[in-house]
What we know:
Blueprint: H1 3-16, E1 20-22, H2 46-49, E2 59-67, E3 69-70, E4 73-74, E5 88-96, H3 102-116, H4 141-150, H5 158-169, H6 178-183, H7 192-202, E6 218-222, H8 248-251, E7 260-262, H9 283-292, H10 316-329, H11 354-360
The structure holds heme C.
Amino acid sequence: MTSSEIRQKFLDFFKSKGHKIVPSAPIVVKDDPTLMFTNAGMNQFKDYFLGNQTPENPRIADTQKCLRVSGKHNDLEEVGVDTYHHTMFEMLGNWSIGDYFKKEAIEWSWELLTKVYGLPKDRLYVTVFEGDASENLPPSSVALVEWKKWVEEDKYSNKGASFAISAYLRTLLTNEAPFQKWLKGNSDAMTEQEKQGASIFFGKAGCVTCHYEKNLGSMNFAALGVKDHYEMGGLNTSESDRRNLGRGGFTGKDEDMYKFRTPQLYNLGDSGPYFHGGSKNSLEEVVRYFNTGVVENIRVPKTQIAEFITPIGLSEEEIQALTQFLQNGLRDPNLKRYVPSSVLSRMCFPNNDLTSKIDMDCF
Ligand code: HEC
């Protein structure tokens, strides 16, 4: 679309909404000692805004030639730095002098951009003034309500953000752990102790009955009878916290009560504590819990507890081997390879706060 088409479509559109089309005022301002050059579309309507004059038609649309080379709006220094600053440009404007306000302005701008110009809706973002306590200005509640009628809210929700984060997390794959290298045929990738641990995991200890997917987790939900977070002194939780009920707390079904999803097992050594309540501080303690097979959480009914929770009878050497397998055999040592050097938004990664921006030199 050429610039004259853009200009014409704009004027035609607002004409169809009852606007009078007026010509651009001259760039050199007459009769106004406060301004040398026209620098905004509103200049020629100053007397209307000040209430000194009343327009024939309260709805006006125009395209105004503007020059910004001095004074309050001086763009000279920006020209050539980015792709959208010019010292001389045209400003398209639709004006309402005491007539319509935010509702129509929002509805029509959306119609113009998406229907007339055909811009894809999912690539448009809108902002709403959030208020300013220091100026005693409230947030723009009207604009918020009106925009919500047109713009899909999903895009800005916590849900949307969580989807984006999980989509990103799914690209972070641990695939250089010794066990994975061993699976690919490198028989030296694991130590003898780690190999022994692996064979206990997949054999005698029976861990693989639940931890069987590629990431060694699964959609198998089980109650292991470990302590809840409030018992460990966790904040903002209590005995009545429905999260203590695991999946049952969300589905409300009897069969799901106290059951948790079988988690993946890679790179756990980097970040304890373990289990839903954070009741074990090391992987060795986890292994010892399974080996002893004695339930710690008396509130979980026996009928719910996984049959697996019963003494396994591993020797001390086997406990160490299984621990080493979890700790090291399943640890990809080089996850830093996933840290992007830059992101499309050009924001700092992973921290985008002001201090990080200065530290990381990304603006
Ligand atoms: C009956 C299914 C089942 C079996 C068998 C099983 N697990 Fe698990 N495992 C789970 C579930 C479910 C959890 C999460 C429990 C919770 O947080 O309440 C879990 C948690 C873990 C965790 C903690 C992970 C974390 O991020 O906190 C480790 C480590 C682990 N299992 C290792 C093992 C090992 C080693 C074995 C074999 C000795 C084993 N599991 C056997 C179901 C099982």
